[in-house]
Design brief:
The chain is of the alpha/beta class. The protein folds into 2 domains: 3-77, Methionine synthase domain (Methyltransferase, Methionine Synthase (B12-binding Domains), Chain A, domain 1, Orthogonal Bundle), CATH 1.10.1240; 89-208, Cobalamin-binding domain (Rossmann fold). It is built from 9 helices and 5 strands. A 5-stranded parallel β-sheet has the order 2-1-3-4-5, with helices on both faces. α1 packs across α4 and α3 packs antiparallel against α4 (57-74). Residues 82-86 have low confidence and may be disordered.
Length: 210
């Protein structure tokens, strides 16, 4: 049994087998962060298949349930670390028109494990609501995830609205999601692109201490 098989179980929406294999991997000494990274990759593939209409929403929901079962198992095993001493407040959500929040949920877990305060807005979040909630929270970051190419322009829209309201310099805008990239982040003027959940806490702390 392997991490590759775990990813396949999650993609197939088999929550019982996913949880059982994750338990065995943890018992055998597999790093919990490595397991989370495997989950992120698996759900990225699920998102891609959904976008291509190879699978539909029920299959996505089953995969999400399998992932949740594993995350709940892994969560207590994650090491709390003092590697990054700076903490920050984050408003986090999935942009309007996109219902894929699994990757965002893993990012939230990683940020909270590393001492960030996170306000989770969920999925299908209007661009202006990101800004309203950031203002209410006194956030340092606005984190916007997109799992479909058709919703990526919403990430850009958030930045445009911040500029219109004279708030662009007040927040660090972080983007992520399967179709996103550093090139896209540079193009729209985002402050940071996070390729995976594991990298998010360190990269975001780096922005705070610049």
């Amino acid at each position: 049994m392997s991490l590759e098989q775990l990813g396949k179980y999650v993609e197939d929406g088999d929550d019982k087998e996913s949880k059982a294999l994750a338990e065995r991997l943890l018992t055998d000494g597999t790093d919990p962060l490595t397991i989370l990274n495997t989950l992120t990759e698996a759900m990225g593939r699920v998102g891609e298949r959904f976008a291509k209409l190879d699978i539909f929403l029920p299959e996505v929901m089953l995969a999400g349930e399998a992932l949740t079962a594993v995350v709940e198992l892994v969560r207590p095993r994650l090491p709390k670390t003092d590697t990054w001493t700076s903490k920050g407040k984050v408003v986090l959500g999935v942009v309007r028109g996109d219902l894929h929040e699994i990757g965002k949920n893993i990012v939230k877990l990683m940020l909270e494990t590393n001492g960030f305060e996170v306000k989770d807005l969920g999925y299908d979040v209007d661009s202006l609501d990101f800004i309203k909630e950031a203002e209410a929270m006194g956030a340092d970051f606005i984190g916007a995830s997109s799992l479909m190419t058709t919703t990526m322009p919403r990430q850009k829209e958030i930045i445009e609205f911040l500029k219109e309201k004279g708030l662009r310099d007040k927040y660090k805008v972080v983007i992520g999601g399967a179709p996103a990239s550093k090139e896209w982040a540079d193009m729209i003027g985002a402050d940071l692109y996070c390729e995976n959940a594991n990298s998010a806490p360190g990269l975001m702390t780096g922005l705070l201490v610049e």
